[in-house]
């Protein structure tokens, strides 16, 4: 019995380092998994590992990534995989994160390489009905900010679908308002992304939404500095005059109307603010260094607020 254990089931390397990641793909069979374990140097015997899987088998193996090691014997490895003990990380995506910021976060959490995430997110086909109103294949604006349990090493498409499924569920809660809005979903998400960057509380979100809509109705430029920051990917440093002069359809300091798409991924509160904006005669607003917003009906009033609160 001892010799059989050593030949078929014993760890491949008793001196191996700590656990490493092993990926199970969506359509992998047990035979595929065992072959891959062997190819990657995790097991001593394919026969012994197949037996271990057969005797441990409790259901369908879940695709994803698992923490295993050549220090584990075949029974331990089989148990971890057939009991779906995937390597997971709890990831919180804040409201207002751009796709670039989400990619950096996921790489930091060892979920996926940022470059792989961005490549897939920038060219995602309209596989969901709500994506059909986009002018391009970017997912900016539709990667719903929330807390997720994610498997390390999960294929990038599955990660994107996880975020998009959440967007679909959340947006369904305001479906009646969406259908009665004069704006397309893409326009609503775009406007919500501006509000996400400009306001911090529900009352101020609704007020800013009303002001931006007022300006759209009058054909005025939106003059949202956050759109310039999106172009330059500068979210903290002061905006320069050179930044303001950038020729881009996203530069609302130069171009009237909405930018072509969202500048971040907004939360549901900002989307709701667009659907239920505060009615007012205000056309201007500014935020002081403490985050307090001041509103104005005329440019003279707005300039007076600038002199009073930004000097």
Low-confidence stretches: none
Sheet of most strands: 2 strands, antiparallel
Total beta strand runs: 6
Quote the distance from N terminus to C terminus.
83 Å
Structural class: mainly alpha
Q: Radius of gyration in whole Å, from Cα?
A: 26 Å
Residue share in helix = 40-55%
Query: H/E series, N to C?
Result: HEHHEHEHHEHHHHHHHEEH
Mean pLDDT: 90
What is the helix tally? 14
Q: How many domain modules?
A: 3
Quaternary organization: single chain
Write out the strand line-up for the largest beta sheet, numbering strands in chain order: 1-2
β-strand percent reads: 5-15%
**Shape by Cα distribution:** elongated
Characterize the structure shown:
This protein is mainly alpha-helical. Strands 1-2 form a two-stranded antiparallel sheet. The protein has helices at about 1-10, 30-40, 45-55, 75-80, 100-110, 115-120, 155-170, 175-180, 185-200, 200-220, 225-230, 240-245, 270-275, 300-310; strands at about 20-25, 65-70, 90, 145-150, 285, 295. Strand 5 and strand 6 (about 295) form a beta hairpin. The protein is elongated. The chain contains 14 helices and six strands. Helix 1 (about 1-10) crosses helix 3 (about 45-55) and helix 9 packs across helix 10.
Key phrases:
311 residues, elongated, two-stranded antiparallel sheet, 3 domains, 14 helices, mainly alpha, single chain
Topology of this structure?
Blueprint: H1 2-9, E1 20-24, H2 30-39, H3 46-56, E2 64-68, H4 74-82, E3 88-92, H5 99-108, H6 114-121, E4 147-151, H7 156-171, H8 175-180, H9 185-198, H10 202-218, H11 225-232, H12 241-244, H13 268-275, E5 284-287, E6 293-296, H14 299-309
Antiparallel strand pairs: 1-2, 3-4, 5-6
